[in-house]
Amino acid sequence: YRWLQAKETRLSEFNQTERKAMLGSYTKVLFVRDPFHRLIATFLQGMGINPSFSSFVQEVLDSTKEHEAWKPLVSLCQPCLVQYDYVVMFGFLRQELGHLLHRAGLPAGSLLPELTDSQVQWTYRWLSEQMFSELSAQQRQQLSHFYRWDLAAFPFSSSFLSE
After folding, report:
1. What distance in Å separates the CA atoms of residue 46 and residue 15, rounded to the nearest whole number?
2. Measured CA distances, 91 to 35, 41, 71, 160 (Å)
3. Cα(93)–Cα(86) distance, rounded to whole angstroms?
4. Which tens digit of pLDDT belongs to each residue from 112-151?
5. Dihedrals phi, psi of 30, to nearest 5 degrees
6. Cα 32 to chain center, whole Å?
7. C-alpha closest to that of 124 among 94, 156, 81
8. What are the coiled-coil residue ranges (predicted)?
9. What is the rounded CA–CA span in Å between residue 27 and residue 85?
10. Domain map of the chain by residue range?
């Protein structure tokens, strides 16, 4: 197969037979996070040039080039092309990774680092409320549309974008 020599080639560039051969012997895990939380994290990491969250969101919405930090997961991870064995949501990492390691026959307890994702969920809820309130109704609608496929593909029931 040509994939043996290919470097940094997108999975979607291979035909179905090649994809099946490449991915057939791997356990495929997809880690997902609420797209609004991803936007907040990107903003807090200083990826935007604007001082306000609302301005940053407008920058994202107006951008003709999608940055991987805020690009919809569906377009990044190709869940229609790859049949993932596990989908792990932020907020459940410790419990899900423990299960995953157990299924792989590995001692889960000793290999897992201390994960605090479920402990910081309340922080993201508070941040989401604060930052969502900065957005105009039009920006909220545009973000929901921008992430519509992520919201349809994954159960982000508590996302501000799905409300």
Report:
1. 38
2. 13, 14, 20, 16
3. 12
4. 666 566 556 767 778 888 899 999 999 999 999 999 999 9
5. -115, 125
6. 4
7. 156
8. none
9. 6
10. 11-153
